[in-house]
Amino acid sequence: MLKLISELNRKLIDLKKAILTPGKRVHKQFQEDMENVLINIVTGKTNNEKTTSVFSPGKQSSFLGISPLKIDEINREGRPFRVAIEGNIGAGKSTCIDYFKRFPSVETYGEPIDWWRNVDGDNLLELLYTDIDKWISVFQSYVQLTRLKVQTSKPQNQNTTVQIFERSIQNNRFCFLEHAYRKGSLNSADYAVLDQWYRWIRSNVDINLDLIVYLRTSPEVVYERVKSRNRPEESGLQFQYLVDLHESHEKWLMSNDERFNNIPLLVLDGNQPISEMEKQYKIFEEKIIGHETKGLKRADSTDLSKAKKNLKMDF
Amino acid sequence: MLKLISELNRKLIDLKKAILTPGKRVHKQFQEDMENVLINIVTGKTNNEKTTSVFSPGKQSSFLGISPLKIDEINREGRPFRVAIEGNIGAGKSTCIDYFKRFPSVETYGEPIDWWRNVDGDNLLELLYTDIDKWISVFQSYVQLTRLKVQTSKPQNQNTTVQIFERSIQNNRFCFLEHAYRKGSLNSADYAVLDQWYRWIRSNVDINLDLIVYLRTSPEVVYERVKSRNRPEESGLQFQYLVDLHESHEKWLMSNDERFNNIPLLVLDGNQPISEMEKQYKIFEEKIIGHETKGLKRADSTDLSKAKKNLKMDF
């Protein structure tokens, strides 16, 4: 079994490399084989029954899989299982969170936008829109602080075994901060200070996530969604910004950069309509909130072997 | 004894108030009485032998005393006794630190200026001088981070029982940050974010100091010292800046603001020449590094009662 897992992990890495090499075409049969293997691993199925996942390299593709990190590398020390829902604007993060809200042992946390709108009386989000170059540094610092607070918060209900977050402090570091630096809004000194803060936090505070659920979408699909849902703060959103953010998510979650991919990752096809997405959530429910459905109370380190078994992440 | 202590604490507070009330003249005999009482408390003497302390309200005064905080409110959890040396530019902080370097169980930490000069290649200190309004926010954020790292660092030698720091993260928050905000270099949003970071740190990390030694000086004296020592980076220093910094130190350390004065405080007359200062250090040696001289190894919480006795901070 271990040999098979090791072989699969190697193939998964090859596949990721192939996807990420521009212009390289991946053999269709190999794609399909790998996809089925990965589906079987994450769902625990032995047949070849397909899910709604579609894999189409060369354009904005969706991909279903889970990363090979050993889950027992994470020391949870009695805290709940932490899940971050990641994805572009319009990827369906809120809908996903709403789906999991119904479970009594799950607590969900939206993005702390209200805090960004009122920092002791100042609206940092508004300031950012008026002059991004002037305000991006302090805004990023505050996003880092507020995400740190959210992600390390104790659950309100002591029976909560799973915490689900809309985005994460890791997202802020590796997706939005990288994006602002690449685009030139953040200068190198601001970037370096924010990076050093992140390193300090990571080394001194348990900000570990136990699972990232990446709602992978194409910029075209989310652009249409954003236009049709007509939220006032998104009215000025440019298509190019969604393309940039998509690329930032891809670089963070789909690359082989060791700094980035040390968290178990479940990639779902976010281009599907809501009804199809809910079918995917149903399929992966046990992976995401398995602690709860199997009746495990507040997980601690002694529960890890049971949890691993429960989650079938035994590679 | 407890009643006497309580009475003395009340008088100390009255005296502080009197000193801080502009234009108010304090009765000379009361001053001298209080001064002697305070000297006796901190030195443990029962006679009225005077030290070099001089108290002269109405101009930049020096004042010798120690604050009434109960030392057992601090939970040190096995770490060394932490002392911060505070004071204006030219107050003699380096000389003080050099004095205590000689003790084998003391480790000393200068200000992390080299880090500020090289943040992954950028010289933040230089950038700050070129455009203070543009760079003060990220500079303050980095000072906060580097002081946090220094102040929570493990000693290199496992026999170290006392860590002595040149300034502190508390200084940064209550002296330099306040100063930058009052002077208008820091806007309210930057100030609020840095303040919220400080609050998070204070609530989540042990940054407690066990003693602050305040080398209290007059701006006139330190201005002369700074001019004569001729350090290149201090060549452009204005007298008014030293006055402002003096006031910031006074507001922080000599006020009755509860946010500020929760750390045991030893105030020494920093206007004296080096030879006189060294006499003061000799007198207060046991207060500052008593753990070492009494042969206490690495202090832990069970040592606290002994340490308290040793330090004679039993009020």
TrEMBL record, chains A, B:
<dbReference type="GO" id="GO:0005739">
    <property type="term" value="C:mitochondrion"/>
</dbReference>
<dbReference type="InterPro" id="IPR050566">
    <property type="entry name" value="Deoxyribonucleoside_kinase"/>
</dbReference>
<dbReference type="InterPro" id="IPR027417">
    <property type="entry name" value="P-loop_NTPase"/>
</dbReference>
<feature type="domain" description="Deoxynucleoside kinase">
    <location>
        <begin position="84"/>
        <end position="283"/>
    </location>
</feature>
<dbReference type="GO" id="GO:0019136">
    <property type="term" value="F:deoxynucleoside kinase activity"/>
</dbReference>
<dbReference type="Pfam" id="PF01712">
    <property type="entry name" value="dNK"/>
</dbReference>
<protein>
    <recommendedName>
        <fullName>Deoxynucleoside kinase domain-containing protein</fullName>
    </recommendedName>
</protein>
<dbReference type="InterPro" id="IPR031314">
    <property type="entry name" value="DNK_dom"/>
</dbReference>
